[in-house]
Design goal:
- This protein is mostly helical.
- The chain folds into 2 domains: 30 residues; 68 residues, Orthogonal Bundle (Hydrophobic Seed Protein).
- It is built from 6 helices and no strands.
- It is elongated, with a radius of gyration of 20 Å.
């Protein structure tokens, strides 16, 4: 194998490793905080309302935490409510798939 072929493979491996590390760092960076969803509570309680931009921004940021919230009996009813489902659709957030 030529020297440039070895360098190319090493470069590809280094880039792949950097991407994996970045993904892990993003996953770790999420701070699960149900209180940040307070701006969304009016929509959850009254699905006829429209979510604010702040609500949608916070909802998207907390999306990786949905399964944690669902497993907490204090929040499960809110997260699975018709208002929450409408809110997710309005903000373009996928419903959680928890195991």
């Amino acid at each position: 194998m030529s020297k440039s072929g070895t360098i190319n493979k090493s470069l590809i491996a280094a880039i792949a490793l950097a991407v994996m590390i970045a993904q892990v760092n993003l996953a770790v960076a999420v701070n699960c905080n149900i209180a940040s969803l307070a701006p969304c509570l009016p929509v959850i309680l009254n699905p006829s309302l429209q979510p604010t931009a702040e609500c949608c921004t916070n909802l998207v940021a907390q999306e990786p935490c949905f399964c944690i919230f669902i497993k907490d009996p204090r929040f499960k009813g809110y997260v699975n409510s018709p208002g929450a489902k409408k809110l997710q659709a309005a903000c373009g957030v996928q419903p959680p798939k928890c195991s």
